[in-house]
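stage 2 :: seqdesign
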């Protein structure tokens, strides 16, 4: 048998601090109008008694759940195998933890999961949502908009039809097109003339933007020098084999991400091609677990993935605080968060 240990109550904290229950409630729930000496007495009593606020009761007062859904539109096999997601989640988690908010992770295993996630978000379990790795035909944005949940997107959304252009969006992205241009210009500067591109999944805006950046520099590129990948090592391997079959004279490759580049490097090595002597290779992301451990070390375009995660969370929390301020004041507090596009930089290593 186990004994049930009673939790300290709001009344117990009030008695210890020598104040009213209402005063304790205002302090615990972040309300105003309590003099600083009383605030300190309440906080000291909370600490001494080990009082933990009842979240359900607190939500009734604050209208906040202190929880944020992080929705990744990918299956768990992809999420847990790709360090990109780990870096972004780490940034999000750090920011939410600093603001005493919980992270609720929701993954999309298949089409049936969209409705499940939509129902969860509409059920009032979280204050807002952070959504990334969207695909162009993804119904999630419409479901989230219908649920009325404040949302920040990771990556520039690319709505698949005109009706969804009316959905207000705040997003955080990097300069995918500019970073791609810088990578390809570097290869041109090395004297490479038969430069190929391994794309990402072309139903995602990041892949389309990087392909556009490649074409900005390689204006009249032979279509045979473009092979479609999917942001995975296996996709990079498959695309590199296609390129070597179609254009065995290729002398440089710009891959849409580091994982694709790692797959391309393996195929080049298997075919006896020396990197960078015969073929120069550049990736995108600068994920250190990948870029520094390839053979040779990978030249790549760096985006600050962890900071992008933190910024996504920061923008969402700002939206939530702004909404709370509007509810309190009865008006618009101004200063709505806007989308952010972060710069990229080329990191030179051995491969190019």
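stage 2 :: out
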């Amino acid at each position: 048998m186990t004994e049930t240990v009673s939790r300290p109550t709001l009344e117990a904290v009030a008695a210890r601090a020598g104040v009213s229950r209402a005063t304790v409630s205002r302090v615990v729930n972040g309300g105003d109008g309590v003099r600083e000496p009383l605030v300190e007495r309440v906080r000291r009593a909370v600490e001494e008694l080990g009082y933990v606020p009842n979240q359900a009761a607190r939500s009734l007062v604050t209208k906040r759940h202190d929880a944020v859904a992080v929705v990744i539109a990918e299956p768990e096999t992809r999420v847990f195998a790709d360090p990109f997601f780990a870096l972004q989640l780490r940034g999000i988690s750090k920011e939410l933890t600093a603001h005493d908010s919980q992270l609720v992770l929701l993954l999309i295993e298949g089409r049936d999961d969209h409705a499940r996630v939509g129902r969860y978000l509409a059920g009032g379990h979280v204050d807002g949502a952070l959504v990334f790795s969207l695909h162009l035909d993804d119904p999630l944005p419409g479901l989230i908009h219908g649920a009325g949940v404040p949302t920040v997107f990771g990556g520039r959304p690319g709505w698949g039809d005109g009706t969804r252009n009316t959905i207000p969006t705040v997003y955080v992205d990097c300069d995918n097109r500019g970073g791609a241009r810088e990578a390809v210009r570097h290869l041109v500067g090395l004297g490479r003339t038969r430069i190929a591109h391994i794309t990402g999944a072309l139903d995602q805006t990041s892949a389309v933007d990087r392909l556009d950046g490649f074409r900005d520099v390689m204006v009249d590129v032979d279509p045979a020098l473009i092979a479609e990948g999917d942001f995975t090592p296996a996709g990079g391997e498959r695309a590199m084999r296609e390129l070597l079959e179609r254009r065995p004279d290729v002398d440089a490759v710009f891959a849409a991400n580091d994982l694709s580049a790692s797959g391309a490097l393996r195929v080049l090595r298997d075919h006896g091609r020396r990197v960078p002597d015969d073929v120069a290779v550049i990736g995108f992301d600068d994920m250190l677990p990948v870029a520094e451990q390839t053979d040779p070390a990978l030249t790549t375009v760096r985006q600050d993935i962890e900071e992008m995660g933190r910024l996504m969370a920061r923008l969402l929390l700002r939206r939530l605080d702004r909404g709370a301020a509007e509810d309190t004041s009865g008006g618009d507090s101004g200063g709505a968060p806007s989308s952010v596009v972060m710069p990229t930089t080329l990191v030179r290593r051995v491969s190019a």
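stage 3 :: structure notes
- Residues 305-329 form the longest helix (25 residues).
- The radius of gyration is 25 Å.
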